[in-house]
Write the structure tokens for this entry.
Amino acid sequence: VQLQASGGGLVQPGGSLTLSCAASGFISRFNTMGWYRQAPGKQREWVASITNLDNTNYADSVKGRFTISRDNAKNTVYLQMNSLNREDTAVYYCAASPFLTGLTLQGRYNNWGQGTQVTVSS
């Protein structure tokens, strides 16, 4: 299954963006879908994950501002991002995992999409 992330762009601080991750196959085959991000000069970090039972988890840095969701009928995962700040500037990646635990760990994901750039700047 190939994953294609889109929706990135330039947004002002305080603004919103919604990222999409479209899969070439059924995302229902994956127990968990997640989003990661990598800022310039930093390691890739986990942002959010959602299981096939719609259990969601978020990194503390985005909790209350970001919302992850999945639409199995459209084979798409979304990341709604509100109240964006400059620290959210990064390349955002979607990923798929066969696991239901340890989901903050990159090694738990075996299918990655290409990234989409999000830049928060005035």
Observations:
- DSSP finds no helices and eleven strands in the chain.
- The mean pLDDT is 95.
- The longest strand covers residues 90-97.
- The radius of gyration is 13 Å.
